[in-house]
Design a protein that fits this description.
This protein is of the alpha/beta class and about 280 residues long. It contains nine helices and twelve strands. It folds into two domains: about 50 residues, Spermidine Synthase, Chain: A, domain 2, CATH 2.30.140; about 220 residues, Vaccinia Virus protein VP39 (Rossmann fold). The strands form two sheets. A seven-stranded mixed sheet has the order 8-7-6-9-10-12-11, with helices on both faces. It has a five-stranded antiparallel sheet with strand order 1-2-3-4-5. The model has no long low-confidence stretch (mean pLDDT about 95).
């Protein structure tokens, strides 16, 4: 079997990967969930027709969304991952010996179950770590119930479609910041500068109103639209503090000190957009 899978997240842009075989294909309570083996990128997870991650290029996403806030905080003890049922962000969080509890708030149990089967070669099984606590529930309610509880929050979400749309709202960012301890930091999946400029502007505006040192940064991931994805760092603690912090034990496949710093250097057109057209 060899077929082309074509993704169309935006009506003006498509991308495709060649698939060797379909590993799983089911309609869960919340979404159409597929796992496939691709010819170049290894196993991939697809939700509602959109690629979420692959074995070959996920490191740019997971290492950047996790280590930037974790390193900035320095010795994080309690971490919340919103979404993240594939286990990739969890694997990176658990590299930190300071972490006492990692709470994963994932809506769809089947994402966890099938990821444990088809991403075991990449992520191992971080769910068996005694520091891990999986909650199969909506993150909004959990954040409302837990103010001032977390050193770091990772919002490892899908694109702003359907139920996930409100995870990109001002209300969500307020709840997230409220759930941090003083000096804590969050990082969120924050879309693509070329295709999602207006949305990122709104999120940046919210983050600026809520914290002293928000910043947008970027990573290269070939299987995401436009070849990359951005993140919003949300904290009173400067992200630059993380440049002075040693990496946790384990192997990095994407982040290094040069990449860490360079990720915050934005193209001029986009820097102007975020600054409201001013210098």
């Amino acid at each position: 079997m060899s077929i082309w899978f074509t993704e169309e997240l935006h009506p003006y842009y498509r991308k495709g990967v060649r698939i060797k075989r379909i590993l799983a294909d089911e309609q869960t309570q919340y979404q159409h969930l597929q796992f496939v083996e691709t010819e170049f990128f290894g196993n991939a997870m697809i939700l509602d027709g959109i690629i979420q991650l692959t074995e070959r290029d996920n490191m740019g996403y997971h290492e950047m969304i996790v280590h930037v806030p974790m390193l900035a905080v320095g010795q994080p003890k309690r971490v919340l991952i919103v979404g993240g049922g594939d286990g990739g962000s969890l694997q990176q969080v658990l590299r930190y010996s300071s972490v006492e509890e990692a709470v994963v708030c994932e809506l769809d149990q089947r994402v966890v179950d099938l990821s444990r089967e088809y991403f075991a070669a990449s992520f191992g099984d971080p769910w068996v770590d005694p520091r891990t606590r999986l909650l199969v529930r909506d993150a909004f309610g959990y954040l409302e119930e837990n103010p001032g509880q977390f050193d770091v929050i990772i919002s490892d979400t899908t694109d702003p479609i359907g139920m996930a749309e409100r995870l990109f709202s001002d209300e969500f960012y307020k709840l997230m910041v409220r759930a941090l301890i003083p000096g804590g930091a969050a990082a969120t999946q924050c879309e693509q500068p070329f295709f999602d400029t207006a949305l990122i502007q709104e999120i940046h505006k919210s983050a600026k109103a809520l914290t002293k040192n928000p910043a947008y940064y970027y990573a290269n991931i070939p299987t995401y639209p436009g070849g990359g994805i951005g993140f919003m760092y949300v904290s009173d603690t400067p992200w630059e503090n993380g440049l002075k912090t040693p990496y946790p034990p384990g192997v990095n496949n994407y982040i290094n000190p040069e990449i860490h710093k360079a990720a915050f250097a934005l193209p001029e057109f986009f820097r102007r957009e975020l600054s409201g057209g001013s210098d």
